[in-house]
Amino acid sequence: MTAIDFSGFVDRLAQISAEVILPFFRSAIGAEDKSRGGAFDPVTEADRAAEVAMRRLIAQTFPAHGVIGEEYGVERAEADYVWVLDPIDGTKAFISGLPTWGTLIGLTHRGRPVYGMMSQPFTRERYFGDGVSAGWRGLGLARNESAASRSLRVRPCPSLGEATLMTTSPQMFDETEAPGFRRVEERTRLARYGADCYGYCALAGGFVDLVIEAGLKPHDIVALVPIIEGAGGIVTTWDGGDPSRGGRIVAAGDRRVHEQALELLAV
């Protein structure tokens, strides 16, 4: 069974999570702080309910598969196939009424990301990829009206001086990481903040050239790796390693910009 065989099932996961989440968006929903005294780390009833719904469908359909989720941890991490779920990536945006959050659904095979989707049900967009190709669907104004898919492709960008850089927030970098980020930012043409998972999809679509972040968990990045790579981009850790375990992440549409960013982040 190949990764592409799972694409229809991923659409089902995206649909059931959307049905759970959307009634809460731009409502009076409250948020719990799960940071235990650290930086504000919100979680909502929508996060938890959507992950429960996705886990239930996975267990019913693929009982031998593992699951790693932001809210409910790890089940069968040793399985050949493991689903990596973030029901609402960008909960801070979600509770602020901003549509830059998304549901991340990733699939690994023997530890390697092989399929990923970012679903934004409010704007009715789905970004997906298998590491070889990547695409986008806008679901139209009617819930069941599906537009044709189009391919995603990164854009060429030879230098940082011509690049658009995105990160969720400069506050995500600690005192050892912030200087490196600033060195890159100072050399780019444009820097934008606040995109969460949407920034990586904008990169895959050829609108952004570079995304730099830190402190990510696997559920924050696994689904995005096949989308970026399928669109012709590159995503690694700051030291050029495997991004699927999270940590300090740099994604680029052009390998030349990626190399330039790595040099500055390592100084």
Question: How would you portray this structure in words?
Answer:
By secondary structure, this protein is an alpha+beta fold. The protein has two domains: 3-151, Fructose-1,6-Bisphosphatase, subunit A, domain 1 (Fructose-1,6-Bisphosphatase, Chain A, domain 1); 160-266, D-Maltodextrin-Binding Protein, domain 2, CATH 3.40.190. 29% of the residues lie in helices and 28% in strands. It contains eight helices and 15 strands. The protein has helices at 7-21, 45-61, 91-95, 178-187, 197-204, 218-221, 224-230, 255-266, and strands spanning 32-33, 42-43, 66-69, 73-75, 81-89, 102-109, 112-120, 125-129, 134-138, 150-151, 164-167, 190-193, 210-216, 234-237, 247-252. Strands 4-3-5-6-7-8-9-10 form an eight-stranded mixed β-sheet, with helices on both faces. A five-stranded mixed β-sheet has the order 12-11-13-15-14, with helices on both faces. It has a two-stranded antiparallel ribbon with strand order 1-2. The longest helix has 17 residues, at 45-61. The chain starts with 6 loop residues before the first helix and ends with a helix. Residues 141-145 have low confidence and may be disordered.
Series of secondary-structure elements, N-terminal to C-terminal: HEEHEEEHEEEEEEHEHEHHEEH
Number of helices: 8
Strand content: 25-35%
* Structural class by secondary-structure content: alpha+beta
Described by the principal axes of the CA atoms, the overall outline is globular
Distance between the termini: 44 Å
Write the CATH architecture name of the largest domain: 2-Layer Sandwich
Q: Could you state the CATH homologous superfamily of the largest domain?
A: Fructose-1,6-Bisphosphatase, subunit A, domain 1
Helix content: 25-40%
Count of DSSP E strands?
A: 15
Q: Output the CATH class name of the largest domain.
A: Alpha Beta
How is the main sheet built?
8 strands, mixed
Spatial order of the strands forming the largest sheet: 4-3-5-6-7-8-9-10
